[in-house]
């Protein structure tokens, strides 16, 4: 690991009107003003946090993605081992970071290093009697998102971004304290504060964050949610970010998972998923058709953007004769049923083999 020490302290600029004015003064016109995060990044960070060593503090890793003007899109990430000793020393696996980056670039050569992520830094409990005295109305302690060691790590990734399109790395903070029923995401960029050419501190100020998912990622997340619905009742913590692309406001998505009297099981046929997909598609078509009829009737004002999106969607659908489509659909459905049948046979054979091996082991004993 590479030891980094003796850096400038880290300052956190609060998100209010005066801080935004100061942030605009410190940053140039070409600086990053928006960070777009994909669900894969959030899941990877949470997996890294879950698999951390016992007694370890926060975890960090490298963010990969691309830049488009003043917007940075975070599409992937990987963990990086590190160790923090107090507020003045940090050891980072530099060679590990370079090797993992080389492997990722083989699969995605268009991605580049754009910054780093970190989870919540745990608070060390004090031993004073006053600090241990809590009341029911006392809010849980706030986990710091920026510490002095954050400045050390940020300086390391600033050197890693020298040869990329990013002028300065972005910092993604994932609140894993779970004090509230939500997972908070925040994005920061840093500006150096100097006096007569001497660095005094690194000031971190929050930038706009957008949670965006592609079509394939949306399908995968929906399947994960449906799989949890089939196991046990639970509540998925909502993901709280600044905004979600296309909404223009604060978004908090909460999903409640229930179990309908044990009727849902993991052994449900794949045809149920197909039926659900077709019902969802039919509902979306009915919604679009109803919107078009209301616009034609004059009950709803026309929206040029929505009209273009509907036209693009219709133009992307291939023209297929109804009888040809029915044949294609029937063939695909038969293939799906055959795969399901073969997988069930394989599962049954494995279960029989396990029982035979267990009985043979008991006889040998």
Give structural notes.
The protein has 365 residues and is of the alpha/beta class. The protein is built from 9 helices and 14 strands. The protein has a 7-stranded mixed β-barrel, surrounded by 4 helices. The chain has a 3-stranded antiparallel sheet with strand order 1-7-6, covered by helices on one side. The chain starts with a strand and ends with a helix. About 12% of the residues have low confidence.
Give the integer mean of the pLDDT values: 76
Radius of gyration: 26 Å
Strand content: 25-35%
Oligomeric form of this entry? single chain
Q: State the separation between the terminal residues, measured CA to CA.
A: 50 Å
Secondary structure elements and pairings:
Elements: E1 2-5, E2 10-13, H1 17-26, E3 34-37, H2 39-50, E4 60-68, E5 71-80, E6 82-85, E7 89-92, H3 94-107, E8 112-119, H4 129-132, H5 148-160, E9 170-174, E10 183-195, E11 198-211, H6 215-229, E12 234-241, E13 243-244, E14 251-257, H7 270-297, H8 304-316, H9 322-364
Parallel strand pairs: 2-11, 3-5, 3-11, 8-9, 10-12, 11-13
Antiparallel strand pairs: 1-7, 4-5, 4-8, 6-7, 9-10, 10-11, 12-14
Brief account:
With 365 residues, the chain is of the alpha/beta class. Helix content is 42%, strand content 26%.
Note the main attributes of this structure:
365 residues; alpha/beta; seven-stranded mixed beta barrel; three-stranded antiparallel sheet; 14 strands
